[in-house]
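Re: the request from the purification team.
They wanted to know what the chain is likely to look like in 3D before they choose a buffer screen. I agreed to run a prediction and write the result into the notebook, where they can find it.
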Amino acid sequence: MQNHSYASPTILPKPGWPGRVIRFVLGALVLNGAFGIGAGFRSLVYDRQPPENIGLWVFAVLLFLSMPHVINLGLSVQWGQKAQIATLILSGACIAADAVFYKRIWAPPVGLLLCIWCLLIAIPLGVALVLAAIFATPGCEMRTYAALLARLQGRSATEHYCPGGIDFIDRWAPHLKRS
């Protein structure tokens, strides 16, 4: 069973080249998705119909599922799923505002919320993945910010087992050399 807790510095293995490549590629994909949302901002906010691009909705669902880890581990807080619940409540309020003021469920309030929310989760996640690849941050990529800050202060940061499972490659890669 995967451990989803903090670890003392140097406990978790540093990613080798396979883990770094995976983190870099995932980071590039997440940042590309964020760029697509930014580039499509105007149509997402002002179109009269919800987007038909299934990729956007898959991306949004994946961001929603990763949201607690991005916030809790990235900001070193223990909010649990409160941000997800707040996002769902805010989404409901935006849909209600759309229905009342625009007479449809997809209008500027919900489109604007989708854009801003996706960018607020995707950009820090994508940047953390790329930085984790560059600096070989052990465990969860969202701890890269804490690790870099600690490094600047001349100390070590606590590490965290990766809740997304990317660190499996870091545990598996050393076995490749023995084969």
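For the purification team: The chain has a mean pLDDT of 88.
Please add any questions underneath this entry.
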